[in-house]
Amino acid sequence: MSLQHKVKAYLKLGKLGVVSLLDLAAIAGSILGYRHGISLLPIIPMIIGGTLASMGAMIINSGIEIDKDKVMSRTSRRPTVVGYVSKKEAIIVGTILSIFGILMGFLDNILTAFFIALGVTIYVFVYTILLKPRTWLNIVIGGFAGSAAAWAGYVSITNSFTLEGFLLGFLIFMWTPGHFWSLALKYREDYINAHYPMLPAVVGITTSAKAIAISNALMVPVVILLFMYLNPYYLAASAIISLFLLYLSFKLIRNPTKEEAMRSFIFSNIYLMIILLLIILSKLI
Ligand code: HEM
Ligand SMILES: CC(C)=CCC/C(C)=C/CC/C(C)=C/COP(=O)(O)OP(=O)(O)O
């Protein structure tokens, strides 16, 4: 296989769409921690390291899950499943990328390297290996992997971990179940075939829709609480966009279909992107 095709295969396994929002979460963490007069330059090693490590972790995941990915429609065309990248190669390349990403964190400080390493560890070992095949709580605890991206961003600038930084990561922790369960509701049969105990594969569609709505409703107070460190403009804008999220969640309960669940999933990414941009803008303006 040509180098160009191999690189394309790894970019696909590294899920650039996911990485882009993870990087935005990390940048929002850095800007949240920013105080006038301190340098924003540490963002650069942190973002390069976090990107390498996130992609590395997801490439390792694709190697580990190659047999399960074969039986799920959504993942059955991945470069690992179709034979462009072997299980062993994915795990080795993913590990090298993850290690390089963690080492990049040390260019800022120990805390940055720690949280990048925490993200890889939670996602690969706690979520992918330990919890995903065993319990519907997999995504609830695995959500801390995404929190680690925001925390790495925060400490890259502050070199300290405070309630302010914790809250942003906790926001992502609270956001993740609603994000993933809406996708898992659409692909419920996939997860049943793969014997993955994702909540929608374990309980009915109506109960899953209620769990998504409750999860989103529990996340909103954390989003609003962040205004303590921001300003009234953030409070007003985040409240408005949160109301729309709750409206979509209510619609999903009223009409628990795969189409409605996919709308909820797609909006979960738009919602988090807007909240992260609001945090950045309200700190910088
Ligand atoms: C352990 C926690 C998470 C799980 C299990 C999860 C699960 C998923 C899955 C299965 C997909 C579909 C991927 C595909 O079909 O290729 C996805 C897509 C996505 N996830 Fe998550 N997610 C998690 C956390 C996050 C976090 C923390 C973020 C960002 C802050 C995020 C952002 C996205 C985005 C932007 C997409 C759409 C990517 C695309 O369609 O290109 N996810 N997620
Ligand atoms: C700081 C740092 C390095 C953080 C890491 C964050 C990270 C890698 C989060 C994973 C997000 C994600 C899309 C998981 C899907 O896993 P899945 O196995 O459920 O998805 P799949 O079924 O599509 O393979």
Write the layout of secondary structure elements.
Layout lengths: L2 H11 L2 H18 L9 H22 L1 H5 L16 H20 L3 H22 L6 H5 L1 H15 L4 H24 L1 H6 L5 H4 L2 H21 L6 H23 L3 H27 L1
Helix pairs in contact: 2-3, 2-8, 2-9, 2-14, 3-5, 3-6, 3-8, 5-6, 6-8, 8-9, 9-12, 9-14, 12-13, 13-14
The chain binds protoporphyrin IX containing FE and farnesyl diphosphate.
The site of protoporphyrin IX containing FE has 21 residues, from helix 2, helix 6, helix 7, helix 8 and helix 9.
Tell me about this structure.
The structure is a single chain. By secondary structure, the protein is mainly alpha-helical. The protein has one domain: UbiA prenyltransferase (Tetracycline Repressor, domain 2, Orthogonal Bundle). It is 78% helix and 0% strand. The protein contains 14 helices and no strands. α6 runs antiparallel to α8, α9 runs antiparallel to α12 and α12 packs antiparallel against α13. The protein is globular. The chain binds protoporphyrin IX containing FE and farnesyl diphosphate. The site of protoporphyrin IX containing FE (HEM) has 21 residues, from α2, α6, α7, α8 and α9.
Which H/E pattern describes the elements? HHHHHHHHHHHHHH
- Highest-level CATH class: Mainly Alpha
Number of helices: 14
- CATH architectural category: Orthogonal Bundle
Structural class: mainly alpha
N-end to C-end Cα span: 49 Å
The biggest beta sheet is recorded as: none
Q: Give me the Rg, rounded.
A: 19 Å
β-strand number:
0
Q: How helix-rich are the residues, as a percent range? A: over 70%
Query: Any ligands, ions or cofactors bound here, and which?
Result: protoporphyrin IX containing FE, farnesyl diphosphate
Instruction: Quote the CATH topology.
Output: Tetracycline Repressor, domain 2
Shape: globular
GO molecular function, one term: protoheme IX farnesyltransferase activity
Keywords: Cell membrane, Heme biosynthesis, Membrane, Transferase, Transmembrane, Transmembrane helix
Pathway: Porphyrin-containing compound metabolism; heme O biosynthesis; heme O from protoheme: step 1/1
Enzyme class: transferase
